[in-house]
Amino acid sequence: MKFLFVVPGSPAPIGGFKLLYEHGRILINAGHDVRFLHVNGGLLSQIDDSSSVYQLVRRLKFLWLNTFGKWRKYANQEFGLKSAWQQKIYRHDISNTEILVIASWQLLIELYDAFDLSHVKVVHPVMDYPGFMGPADKIKSSWEKSATYFCISDYLYKSVLSHSNPGKIANIGCLLPGDDIGFDYTDKEILEVSRRGILLSFSTGVYKNPEGTCELISEIRLKFPKERITVFGRPQRPKGLPEDVTYLKNMSDNEVAELYRSSKVFVFFSNFEGFGLMPLEAMRLGCAVVCTDCFGNRDYIEDKVNALIVSPGDVEKTVSGVAGLLKDEDLRLRLVRAGLKKSREFLPSNFKEALVEAYENV
Q1: Which fold has domain 187-344?
Q2: If you count Cβ atoms within 10 Å of the first and of the last residue's Cβ in the chain, which end, N or C, has fewer?
């Protein structure tokens, strides 16, 4: 079968992109023809409605990134995928495919409006939630198309179920995409590795709570003046971050994995996640986790079993959780052992058969 995955924006090691890249690799290994098409900037309306100057700037930026950008070959190099990256999508891109996988709710709406999709089967992987990742009414309307909806968490599945035809909804779950970052280490090696410091991630997405994350980092620095604090993210270093906090930009998957493997505690402070891969990645490499209850991650987090869970935005309890893990080694190791066990449930090998069957039977 011929699959075309349409993804907004430029190639990058972003959780949602990586998840779909892994789906593509699994489908290729099952004998299917899979292509990925990244649409620069994401939305057709942003291109068509913008001024000529803005369009020129977009095109120049696209040409520069497509020639020199760090991640321009990421999907091919890391997942072995056929991946193109262009300014917008055209009718001929869609005509030669059997199953069209549209990755964002905005693109789903726009492609239904712009093209006749009656000749293809449409799949929409649901990763976004109304109000957190866009206007509630528009996201809900995207759940009412004649598409098949693949939900990546139980929370999203239950949410979509009330807005679309139940026969066209499947809870396919989420998996740890990419090569198994913990494959080269036994549990004993992971548990015995020398660790120090506190690790956090940063993103400018509103649902990621960037302002709250910066406040949290400052409070952690005040509470632990001698502890190493490392933050990684794709944007520029946020203003107001304490000077003695290390900020690492645009890290590769292997570099982030090494951060997980060498840190004692990983703190995840998002307001909402469709699933939330980072705490699970940290668990896979033995880093104790303090994270918010951000809905999608309920598929794998258990408070005081494999993580310490706090309410979104609760800086005080998050700092207290970090303090508890730094002070109580028995608690930290107990969470780490349980996290290692839970993370193995989400390796791609556990999803291959069900995933291929779901795509083949759209």
Answers
A1: Rossmann fold (3.40.50)
A2: N
